[in-house]
Specification:
By secondary structure, chain A is α/β, with parallel strands linked by helices. Chain A contains six helices and 15 strands.
Chain lengths: 217, 237
């Protein structure tokens, strides 16, 4: 039984550690903010120039000058700071952000990531995605395992890359994988309930090893 | 006679600096912190074949979208243009050129341009189409791609408050690209919500010093649009 979007977000949230500065992408990754584990403190970074991003405002309290990178209205926290775009990306490109959780169109077993353009379709642009995957210390991809029945975890990406050798972990609706972006190679860490290894392999093009703990289970 | 940087309106502030085919930087992220009234004045000028350096291209009826409507834009240098149907139509018809830059690379190119730095190396884009045709060099075992500093003939920006010297402060996330763009153009024109007397700012809190600002327009009224209004419900205590 596949995990829901909420369960995927909750699983990704387990990668958060106390004191982390974290950038969440648009879509399912945004949900991760709802599952920050009790007792830990993280600051959310919005690349448009806000560090310490708060929840959506109450109705009637929206401020057009307080938005996140998805252009959604958000709120300030006591810890919030505002910076210009160059300083915001210095946090990203200088390796100061601990963790980035983002969506993907394709991930390859060597850690390559494609999430910004589909040839033949109108290209909207990469926004800050290339900076995030190149600069953030640890990159976790949160995505559906397949698209239209086709695998998204591949030997090599067929779409234009957002970054080469940049992904550290993939959480899908079926499984969790560790990716060794330096040495290359994926390892299956967790399977969703009632999903068999054979069923997973049938919808995964990428080669992967199976973690010893999972083999024993 | 002392220099007067304060102009009566946006049209006056842009007089003599706009011409066909020029490159203009325009501040803002989405519709947040965009120089709305200066964009309207560029529309009124009728200048054509313009190249804009701007993170986004506005929406169909807002931001730089109004200059796409009037077909005054030939090229955009941006990181994301997803919210604009007119943009898509003109691009697919071959009427509009687009140069995509990763957002951090775009911000740093402008910062570098303003600081007299002709080029720099960054990890962003290594191994992607962005690095094609550019020098890639290894530093300390990692690959980096060379990107060029960026300058423009004109920058139009939005700030919260100015004093008559041109010292500026911004409001919250409306700061975004505005401070870097102020530094990277031959002429910088700012529209502000409030014009305050000299000495009003704590000098420690000034974000853009007046050296980077040539012309100032105080807005009569300020209309700020929200692109994605998101709210949460109040939970009874």
């Amino acid at each position: 039984m596949a995990w829901t979007r909420e369960q995927m977000a909750a699983r990704a949230a387990q990668e958060l550690k106390d004191g982390f500065y974290v950038n969440l992408g648009i879509g399912i990754p945004t949900l991760v903010a709802n599952y920050i584990p009790e007792g830990i403190s993280v600051q959310l970074h919005s690349e448009n120039g806000m560090l310490g991003t708060g929840p959506f405002p109450f109705e009637g309290e929206e401020d057009a000058d307080v938005i996140n990178a998805g252009k959604q209205t958000v709120t300030e926290l006591p810890s919030t700071s505002y910076v210009d775009s160059a300083s915001s990306f210095a946090m990203v490109r200088g390796g100061h952000i601990n963790l980035s959780i983002l969506g993907a169109l394709q991930v390859a077993e060597n850690g390559d990531l494609a999430n910004w353009m589909i040839p033949g379709k109108m290209v909207k642009g990469m926004g800050g995605a290339m900076d995030l995957v190149a600069g953030v210390k640890r990159v976790v991809v949160l995505m559906e395992h397949t698209a239209g029945g086709k695998p998204k975890l591949l030997h090599r990406c067929t779409l234009p890359l957002t970054g080469a050798g940049v992904v550290d972990m993939v959480v899908t609706d079926l499984a969790v994988f560790d990716v060794d972006r330096r040495g290359g190679g994926m390892t299956l860490l967790e399977l969703a309930p009632w999903v068999t290894l054979a069923a997973l392999r049938a919808v995964t093009e990428a080669d992967f090893a199976v973690a010893p703990a999972l083999k024993a289970a | 006679m002392a220099v007067n940087k304060v102009y009566p309106d946006a049209v006056a502030a842009l007089a003599g600096v706009i011409r066909d085919g020029m490159t203009i930087m325009a501040g803002g992220f989405g519709l947040c912190g965009i120089p709305t009234v200066l964009i309207e004045a560029i529309r009124a000028s009728g200048a054509r074949d313009l190249t804009f350096v701007s993170n986004n291209a506005g929406v169909d009826d807002g931001g730089l979208g109004v200059l796409l409507q009037s077909r005054q834009v030939r090229k955009m240098i941006s990181s994301y243009v997803g919210e604009n149907k007119i943009f898509a139509e003109q691009y697919l018809a071959g009427e509009l050129e687009i140069e995509f830059n990763p957002q951090g690379t775009l911000a740093e190119r402008i910062r570098a341009g303003g600081a007299g730095i002709p080029a720099f190396f960054t990890k962003t884009g290594v191994g992607t189409v962005i690095a094609e045709g550019k020098e890639v060099r290894e530093f300390d075992g990692e690959k980096y791609v060379m990107e060029r500093g960026l300058r423009a003939e004109l920058a139009i920006i939005h700030a919260w408050k100015a004093d008559p010297e041109g010292n500026l402060v911004y409001r919250k996330t409306a700061r975004n690209f505005n401070p870097m763009m102020a530094t990277a153009a031959a002429v910088t024109v700012v529209e502000v919500e409030e014009l305050v007397p000299l000495g009003s700012f704590d000098p420690d809190h000034i974000v853009t010093p007046g050296i980077f600002v040539n012309r100032i327009v105080k807005l009569d009224s300020v209309v700020k649009r929200i692109e994605q209004r998101t709210v949460r419900k109040r939970v009874a205590a």
